[in-house]
Amino acid sequence: MNMKIILFSISFITLCFSQIWQPGATGYTFLKLGVGVRPVAMGNAFTALSDDGTAVFWNPAGLGVINNYHISGMAMSHLGFIQYYNLTSSIFLGKKVGSLGIGICYLTATDTRRDEAGNELDQFRNSDMLLNCGYGKAIGKKKQIAFGGSGKIVRSQLEEKSAWGFLGDFGVILHPVKVIYLGTTIKNFGMPRRFINKWEYPPVNFRQGLAIKIPFAQNHWALSLDYSLYPDYIPTFSIGSEIHIREPKLMQTATKVIFGQESSLSGFSLMVGYQTGYQDLGWSGFSFGFSLEIMIGSALFLDIGAVGLSYGYLGYSERIGIGLNYSPELNKAKK
């Protein structure tokens, strides 16, 4: 079994690098934007820690790790003139079956039409859309290895011109010991497309990650590291950390002391991260985020979160998100 895993891993990594070093300029630029408040707040270091509904975008093997139902939406204002929205969901089908993941993304930006002299004429909008469907499953007696894959349909429009693309993601997550996760994924694997009068290659992204996740009761602390490689950009390194506290009774007591009345607040998360590759000084590459968790039913939680990412002199990108998380395992634990 171990030899088969090693041979598969070697073949998988070889396939990854053969795709990354394709010739030509890449397109589909919006696919490089991070999805989800939590992963972005952790500096995009999420390859080995893909354990929520955004796994279909970061590493579809994570769909084989999760055991709950999750749906979330995110809205982003990027550099003041770009708006980015996405919706993600994970559907747990059972420990022996795995999970399905579904994601939808839409990006729109405003541009200005000019005449030959450079004078402004009018404005028009560009857009990119994506539909992502994936599946992941853990195998082995101790579920120490998970595989996953997803297929993407992409449509880009520039004024009246448009083009379609079909891409795929493949990933593996190893869980050798209780608190350690190792992840590898190749994202945006596919054929080039012709957009207007140019050929565009997909931005194939090879990622490897290491994560340490230490649970205590219903809480956890996580530290995650990522290495990312694109064919048209220098390699980048990411590091992120998260502390998640879920203590309903403690939170209710705290809100009563502070605000004079109890609330449905059941927990919170704090995230911080950093990614290399930003040339500006200052806080460029740093990200900070938080989320509040509200219990709205038995094992049903509402998450509200936000994250800010600094691009240095270029400004900031803000994201806000809201999600629902149903964890049936909590009901079983109570019984």
Structural write-up:
It is a single chain. The chain has helices at residues 2-20, 37-41, 55-58, 248-259, 328-334; strands at residues 69-78, 82-94, 98-114, 120-139, 145-158, 161-177, 180-190, 193-195, 198-200, 205-216, 219-230, 233-246, 265-275, 286-297, 300-310, 316-326. With 335 residues, the protein is mainly beta. It has one domain: monomeric porin ompg (Porin), CATH 2.40.160.40. The strands form two sheets. It has a 14-stranded antiparallel beta barrel with strand order 1-2-3-4-5-6-7-10-11-12-13-14-15-16. A two-stranded antiparallel ribbon has the order 8-9. The chain is globular, with a radius of gyration of 21 Å. The two termini are 36 Å apart. This is PorV/PorQ family protein. It comes from candidate division WOR-3 bacterium.
Briefly say what this structure is.
The mean pLDDT is 84.
